[in-house]
Specification:
The chain is of the alpha+beta class. The chain contains 4 helices and 6 strands, in the order E-H-E-H-H-H-E-E-E-E.
Length: 140
Amino acid sequence: MTVTIYHNSDCGTSRNTLAMIRQSGEEPEVVEYLKNPPSRDTLVSLIAAMGMTPRALLREKGTPYAALDLANPKWSDDELIDFMMAHPILINRPIVVSPKGVKLCRPSEAVLDLLASDIGQFVKEDGELVSPNTPGARAG
């Protein structure tokens, strides 16, 4: 199975998601999207595959979201994508692509539905235990 993660190593959720993928036995393609942003076509495809709007993918915390007035409803989807292309930090993360689908994995447990095998128990960086019985985790 081929798995790709659009990853930010400074993000705990992204690091936990990557570790869960690896614990499942997969070595994913890791795209450090701040250094190597997806093309516009790829970003549009990811958004469509997730069934989201560009606005729903915008990240507010630690970004120029407020300075750019992106909460303003005047911005079209195309314009919001333009902002994400100009400022990749506005793209929320981590986005995981697998043969089972594409998801914004927030919380990190959302990745469990995209993996071919169970990860068993997993301890997040903050000490939270994730297991097949964790609410929101898929059944084993």
